[in-house]
Amino acid sequence: MHHPPSRNDAQIAQWNGAAGHAWRDEHALLDRMFKPFEDLIAATPGVGPGSVVLDVGCGTGATVMALARRVGQAGRVLGIDVSAPMLDVARARAQPGDGQVHFVQADAQTYPFAPAGFDAVVSRFGVMFFSDPVRAFTNLRYAVRPAGALRCLAWRSAGDNPFMVEAERAAAHLLAGLAQARPDGPGQFAFAERRHVEDLLAASGWTRVAVQPVDAVCAFPETALPRYLTRLGPVGRLLADKDEAARQQIVAALRPAFDRYLHDGEVRFSAACWLIEARAPG
This protein's superkingdom (predicted)? Predict the structure, then answer.
């Protein structure tokens, strides 16, 4: 397999900088928020005792540990991510007896996986950040055995996920330099269009491609909303450079925009995603 070099420097810098540190610090909040999707990844068809699984963009390791419980001591799970801060948390979560869990800091787009080394490749919101997605999914196809499974979750459009862009909309007049989410990626909404996902997987050599909408209710404590606003997403990254007084002022201005998501002491919202499944040629 010979490819020209492909670099993803901007995303690597972002996830080793403010974004990666924020996800490291707020991993418990994010794990709770995304628990419904962790369960979907753990339930990947064909993954069971003894399976060998690759988790792409594994972040702080929640999905790796869920998969490890599924494959048992006879199986193995490798988590790959570009983010050193997030992998610090992931490695700390692995218990001394979890010999089947391993992590590597690398870009799955270019990492030299052993050919046909995995029964399945999975990802919870980790595949939208490649600078060259066809190159990346081709590399992942070489890493999986013949007829091996691919199961990924990716966000649908910003329009389908108003909660995810609520802070940017509310803060647009308050924060200079706030970039709106781009639909052409790499980034959160890079896979917003179903046909685009189908086309890039076909171009990468995957077969039996199925891209189906999945909606789930996500929740976290209302008391965590200020942390969500000041640490996560584009608004959080810009607020990192503000002093505490400025942060509190902006959060107070943003807070009313989230009233419609508050229910019985929780922030609740509907998350609109694609469940992406495919098979390597068999």
Answer: Bacteria
